[in-house]
Amino acid sequence: MTAMALLIILFALAMVVGPIMLMRPSPMQTKLANLRNLAIKAGCRVHLSRHPWDNTIGELACYSLPWPTEQLKRFQGVQLSVFKKNYRHDIHFFEFWDWQKKDEGALIHDLEWKNAFRDFLKTLPPNIHGIEINKLGCTLCLREKLQKPEAEISAEILASLQGLQGIFKRAAS
Q1: 133, 66 Cβ separation under 8 angstroms
Q2: Phi then psi for 25, rounded to 5 degrees?
Q3: What percentage of the chain carries pLDDT values higher than 90?
Q4: Among 56, 24, 63, 61, which residue's Cα sits nearest to residue 40?
Q5: Fewest CB atoms within 10 Å of the CB: 76, 101, 120, 160?
Q6: Cα–chain-centroid distance for residue 24?
């Protein structure tokens, strides 16, 4: 076998194996898929979205926790969303957080609820950029940073969503 024939065989093999190797997910993609699957198994819905004001952030993963069935009627008219801006201002709802939507009736005029919601915002990690609350449930929009094991991140997201739901359940009762 000549060197030229060997090169042709190696080239043909590379042309077959190369695209197959490109279809395999990277380790980061595998970890993201694991994180999202853990959240789905815990009862969350996951979708991708964009930040409404800041195009430099890129895609945000939105983790939604539906309201318990017995709570659904309470939250039919609620439509809230706050997103982080890249600057702090007194006109914002709280520090960097400002309303994108607020069609919730008298809820935001309730000082106790406002304070509880502000306290909740203080506890959020910096990678969370948005919160949405509507008749379907509570949603956290975040940049997925995999600096911890996926199970730990999923548990933190679920705990934050449950804490957020707790604020709204207390306000609605």
Answers
A1: no
A2: -70, 150
A3: 35
A4: 63
A5: 76
A6: 25
